[in-house]
Amino acid sequence: MSTHTTYNGLISMSNPACNASCCYRLMINPNKNPFWNAGQHSDKSLGNFVFELKKWYHYAMVCDGKVTKISIDGKFVGEVAENFKLPEFKEVTLYVGTGESPGAWKVEDLAIDEVMIWNKALDEKELGSVIKGYKVFSAVDANGKLAATWAEVKK
Questions:
Q1: For residue 143, what are the CA distances in angstroms to 90, 122, 125, 140?
Q2: For the chain, N or C: smaller number of CB within 10 Å?
Q3: Cβ-proximal residues to 85 (8 Å cutoff; 6+ apart), any chain
Q4: Mean pLDDT by 10 residues, the chain (155 residues)
Q5: Which secondary-structure segment (H or E) carries 127?
Q6: Does domain 8-120 have CATH number 2.60.120.200?
Q7: What is the C-alpha separation between 83 and 39, in angstroms, rounded?
């Protein structure tokens, strides 16, 4: 973020199963704090972390229906109790750079490098692996396998 004056919507996902226009969204509120919805349109925020301007962050939300954890740069900075059943997603509408619908809480002067969504709650170690970029989650662990090793050698 180079400037910040309002809500910045980073990513939003909706689905008819949620009965909400933004059942999952990750944002930054006007005070530069983490702001989100998880599983329902019920706004939550953490005041114990403030994003700085002109600095890159890895910002993640992990939720299981009982609790939502917010992670900044691979470390959980806070959690909030939730009470919702995880919906079955068959089709979703995904918005990047806006917080609810096209043009609603769009980013001001901000860059988004990557967006990743999993169908499971990652732990701190897994989030750290994502940030370091050396582990891709799959059914088979490629670490130490010939094809993965050869790809690294060729680099």
A1: 31, 19, 16, 9
A2: C
A3: 39, 65
A4: 90 78 88 92 92 94 92 92 80 85 83 85 85 64 65 65
A5: helix 124-132
A6: yes
A7: 9
